[in-house]
Amino acid sequence: MTTEATWTADEMMTVAAARALRDGQTCFVGIGLPSTAANLARRLHAPGLVLIYESGTIDTKPTELPLSIGDEVLVDAALSVVPVPELFNYWLQPGRIDVGFLSGAQLDRFGNLNTTVIGPYDHPTVRLPGSGGAPEIAAHCREVMIVTRHRLRTFVPQVDFVTTVGHGRGPSDRRRLGLRGAGPTRVITDLGVLEPDAASAELVLTALHTGVSVEQVHAETGWELKVSPDLTTTAAPDDVELTTLRAMRTVGL
Length: 253
What we know:
Number of strands: 14
Largest sheet: 8 strands, mixed
Structural class: alpha/beta
Strand content: 15-25%
Strand order of the largest sheet: 2-1-5-10-11-12-13-14
Oligomer: single chain
Number of domains: 1
Mean pLDDT: 88
Distance between the termini: 25 Å
Order of helices and strands: HEHEEEHEEEEEHEHEEEHEH
């Protein structure tokens, strides 16, 4: 059952990303949309989801939602806070983290991400924030999920700068480069879901969100995006998902 009110494309994307996480997983969370999705999953169906942030917090449990007006709101908490080098050396590099959540300014057909520059590196049109821990996350997490809005300027045939390797230029690149994890297994956008083809590692459209057409996705993709013969439709957000997500925004999550 869905709420009478309509949902936004961002809400659909966040709900779809939350559904992709499973109880008991360890998740390295990026700020912004990935963080919202991870916290939504923990509140709804994955209470044992362990959230780790690049700032060094482990088993992070941000502010709890009030059950009704006047209820106490708990302060932010984490099981522990460790130095960032320890977080990377002990948790990330040995492959102890199940899922890494990432985003980027550009993404190409092989799931490579750019968060460095738009345009030539020496004379960029835009200089972006940089890599942070994204290359390490993509290299060592058992799998990576990318959450980003589906726009033509973002979904490009080839990124201007490879900040974070997804599948390089094909299925053997990760192994050749010595990257531990499986790389991007799912790209969740406000229009649908893309997954790498098993043979080519090129991203393929595998699901459309409710109310979205294949034509809309093609119009916002900078390459000839292939469509899975088993294309599915993402279920619309239900009342509980939307109510919980909107309450999280109310308390600033």
